[in-house]
Design a protein that fits this description.
binds fe (ii) ion, single chain, 293 residues, 8-stranded mixed β-sheet
C-alpha cells in the first residue's frame, strides 16, 4: 500500500520534480510549514471578527457534512460569490436554538472570502502559493472557491468519502484542492484521510443542476471505495495538503475538546469549460480571479 508523501515545504513554494512525481502517484501531498503560524493565527482572528459581526438569528442553515452539500436550499446554492455561514447539524436544540456559542456551532463559512475580504484575499494570493499552483502545471489558474472549516469540538460532523470534482467539475477536469491546517489536525479531532493512488479511479459521482433547476447527484461508477486503505493525514498548524480533484478523501467526526480549523481553496484551469449546471455560479460582477492582486 502506498504512503501519503510528506515533505517540508519548499521555500519558494515551487514543488520539486520528486514532489510532483509523488503527487501524481498518490493524488495528494503534504507540505509541512507552508504557512507561518502567525499567518494562520491572523486568519483565525479575522474569521472570529466576521463571526462576531454575524447574527445567527438571520439564518439557521445547517450544512450536511455527511452529504457535502445542501440540496434545495437557496442560502447554500447562491453562496458561490458571497460569504455565508453554515451550522453543524447538531448545533440546535429541539426548539431551534443554538446550544453552544455561535463560534462553536459553525460547520463552515463559504465560498468567496478570497475575493470579498482583504485578509482572506492576502492569505489566498501569496507568491508562494501562486508558485506552488504554477508548478502543478496550471497555465491560467482561477480560484473557484474558498471555505473556512471549523470542525468544532464534540459536534464537528464526519465527511464521508468523496471526490471534490464531483461538485467542482470542469471539462476537462482541472480541480485541485489546497487545504491549510489553521490548527493541528489529529485523528482525535477529525483530520483528513486519503486513499493514496485512488485518484486514478474514475469520477464516481457528478452533481449537476437538472433542467427543473434542482441539484442532482448522479452515480457514474458504483464501485465502492476501498475504505480499508484510507490513511489518516495528521497535519500541524501551517501545513498545506494539496490534493487532486479526483483524490477520494474523508474526515471523521470531532469528538475531542479541540477545534480543528482549516481553510481550503479550490483552483481550476481558466481554459477548461465550466458548466452552467455546476452548483457554484458566480455573478458577472465578481468574476473568478487567479493569483494576481
Ligand atoms: Fe472534499
Amino acid at each position: 500500500m502506498q504512503k501519503i508523501p510528506i515533505y517540508q515545504s519548499p521555500e519558494d513554494g515551487r514543488l520539486t520534480a520528486a514532489m510532483l512525481a509523488d503527487f501524481h502517484a498518490s493524488g495528494v501531498i503534504v507540505l509541512e510549514d507552508f504557512v507561518a503560524a502567525a499567518a494562520c493565527r491572523a486568519l483565525r482572528e479575522r474569521m472570529q471578527q466576521m463571526i462576531d459581526e454575524f447574527d445567527p438569528a438571520e439564518v439557521k442553515h445547517v450544512f450536511s457534512a455527511v452529504e457535502q452539500t445542501q440540496l434545495g436550499d437557496s442560502y447554500f446554492e447562491e453562496s458561490g460569490d458571497k460569504i455565508r455561514f453554515f451550522f453543524e447539524q447538531h448545533a440546535f436544540n429541539e426548539r431551534g436554538e443554538l446550544i453552544r456559542p455561535k463560534q462553536l456551532s459553525l460547520n463552515k463559512v463559504g465560498h468567496a472570502m478570497h475575493d470579498l475580504d482583504p485578509v482572506f484575499d492576502a492569505f489566498s494570493r501569496t507568491p508562494k502559493l501562486a508558485a506552488a499552483v504554477q508548478s502543478l502545471g496550471y497555465l491560467e489558474p482561477l480560484i473557484l472557491q474558498s471555505m473556512y472549516i471549523f470542525k468544532p469540538p464534540h459536534i464537528g460532523g464526519e465527511v464521508i468519502c468523496h471526490q471534490d470534482s464531483t461538485y467542482l467539475y470542469t471539462e476537462p477536469e482541472s480541480c485541485t484542492g489546497f487545504w491549510f491546517a489553521l490548527e493541528d489536525a489529529t485523528t482525535e479531532n477529525g483530520c483528513m484521510h486519503f486513499i493514496p493512488g485512488a485518484h486514478k479511479e474514475p469520477l464516481k459521482k457528478l452533481q449537476q443542476r437538472s433542467a427543473d433547476g434542482k441539484l442532482v447527484l448522479t452515480t457514474l461508477d458504483a464501485t465502492p471505495w476501498k475504505n480499508s486503505e484510507t490513511l489518516a493525514t495528521e497535519a500541524k498548524t501551517g501545513t498545506l495538503v494539496i490534493f487532486d480533484g479526483r483524490a477520494p478523501h474523508l474526515s471523521g467526526p470531532n469528538l475531542s475538546d479541540k477545534s480543528r480549523h482549516a481553510y481550503t481553496l479550490h483552483v481550476i484551469e481558466k481554459g477548461s469549460h465550466y458548466p452552467a449546471e455546476n452548483w457554484l455560479q458566480r455573478s458577472a460582477d465578481l468574476p473568478m480571479r487567479g493569483f494576481t492582486h
